[in-house]
Amino acid sequence: MSVLKKWVQVWILILVFGFAQKPERIVTIYLIGDSTMADYANNYDEGRDYYQTRYPVTGWGQVFQPFFSTDLSVFSNLFTADSAVVDDRARGGRSTRTFFQEGRWRSVYESLKPGDVVIIQFGHNDAAETKTERYVDIEGYKEFLRLYVTQSRQKGATPIILTPVARNYPWENNHLQNVHGEYPEAALEVAQELNTLFIDLNQLSMDAFSEVGREYATQNYFMNLDSGVYEAYPNGQSDNTHFQPEGARVVAGLVFVTMKTLKK
Q1: How far apart are CA 249 and CA 64, in angstroms?
Q2: Does the domain spanning 25-259 belong to CATH 3.40.50.2300?
Q3: With 264 labelled, which of 55, 154, 182, 196 sits at a CA distance of 20 to 30 A?
Q4: Domain coordinates of the chain in residue numbers?
């Protein structure tokens, strides 16, 4: 084989491999938390039809994925990836303690890869003093948050602590107020102590809901339903904790927009 022919073959190989598509970089964004964050449409009730048994209840994590169909370079201070996959592990009725005790955190921990993100939002059930099976006092709440942060970092993942999203009460002077007692402040204290990324979703959601007003938020954001409208709720529903799709999208948008401002 001539020298010229060999060089031609070498250059062909260089061109082929040089222009070969690089493997796609994928970041997984894990969501751990309670019912306000859960995905009810993803076989939540083990094979039962979502539209027959749950709809329109919608956790904000359930509608989080579509926000990431955009240029992810806006998250360059948080992660580097070509695409992002939201893995929603949140579950109704869980507190920081029960999520851990049931092995739900272990399942996430074993799946974590360097560069992944873990969004942590608890507090609704931790504060349920009358429900001892889920209640966690302030110090316990802080300790479990520390555990999730520390173990996420052990796997090279980036944890983000969120305060619990607002409920639709109490209202004072046309502004929604904090219903979560000392838990939002406790979450902030852990974030400051461990130098962890932090989103005050409680305050953000109180402000966002207040902006549209009590009547609109009550009717369109939360699960306050008239009878005879939805198959899953033939007698209607009065629920100022869980979201309809519009409310869930508003909350997901608050988290998404704030994530753009975070820097590791």
Answers
A1: 8
A2: no
A3: 182
A4: 25-259
